[in-house]
Amino acid sequence: ENPLRIDVDPPRQAEAIGLLDVFVGIDLFRGFSLGRAREILQVARSVHYTAGAMIIKEGSLGDAFYIIKSGVASVRSGGEEIKRYQAGDYFGETALIRNKPRNADVVAQTDLNLVEIDRYDFLYLLRGTDISVRLLRLAQMREERSWDLFRTNTALNLLTSAQKTQLQSFMDVVETKEGDLLWTSGEAAGAAYLIDEGRVALEGYSDGLRPYGSASFLGEIDAIVSGGATTGSARVVEAGRVFCLTRTDLVRWFDENP
Fold first, then answer.
1. Which member of 22, 49, 132, 223 has the lowest number of beta carbons within 10 Å of its beta carbon?
2. Which residues 6+ apart lie within 8 Å of 139 measured at CB?
3. How far apart are CA 74 and CA 226, in angstroms?
4. What is the DSSP string of 77-138?
């Protein structure tokens, strides 16, 4: 009923701790060594944008990478909002990795506090890691319509933007032909699939299942998590393509997002 407020001076390392906390919260950088943490502190800086400010202009050259500490950013193309990013999300990496102009505007929807790293410092941080490979995959997925499929799927739509981005960084595009088997009954469960185009029928499961189409997420999740065998098969009945998530990546994603 009578709370006491004790004012204390923040530790001298408060700003450094805050910067490192931002990086620890991003799956890409969790495996960084202590030596890399020192490099982060040397190249990262905190910046602030007021609501309505233009952070990235579509068509401009990529010169920085950004992580959101607090606030909401709106990603727009042709004047239409594509998505929103919030605390824990990052953006700007595609133009840096692929050395291409920015493919969308990013505007501060609210007041924004960001961590900013210049292009060459960012690329220097990635040396000797597999992060650049994952970011190239993510860049491809961001050009695909995987984000739209997330929004259409009733389960995946509930994920945060950071969780969706992490899933995108694990995805590979697989073209499918009629008759292809995504998995076979009795074999070790090796992957799950998000259908982009075409239809897939499940065989050996409950009767009456209709073929699944665009935005369906298919996989024997229990078998994937346990490393067990599948109890049925998944057969392509209409050619198209799917986004594949391997068991290794999916289990890692589940571990980090229980």
1. 132
2. 93, 94, 97, 98
3. 39
4. ETTEEEEEE-TT-EE-HHHHHHT----SEEEESS-EEEEEEEHHHHHHHTTTSSHHHHHHHH
Q: Give the integer Cα–Cα distance in Å for 16 and 74.
A: 27
* Lowest pLDDT segment from 124-138, 159-173, 180-194: 124-138
Number of Cα atoms under 13 Å in the Cβ half of residue 98: 17
Angstrom distance (rounded) from CA 111 to CA 53:
9
Instruction: Go through the chain and tell me how many residues it has.
Output: 258
Reported as half-sphere exposure (CB side, CA atoms, 13 A), residue 185 has a value of: 8
What is the reported pTM? 0.76
Amino acid in the structure at residue 71: G
Q: What is the pLDDT of residues 143-186, one digit of tens each?
A: 788 888 998 999 999 998 889 988 998 999 999 999 999 999 99
Query: Three-state secondary structure along 165-219?
Result: HHHHHHCEEEEECCCCEEECCCCECCEEEEEEEEEEEEECCCCCCCCECCCCEEC
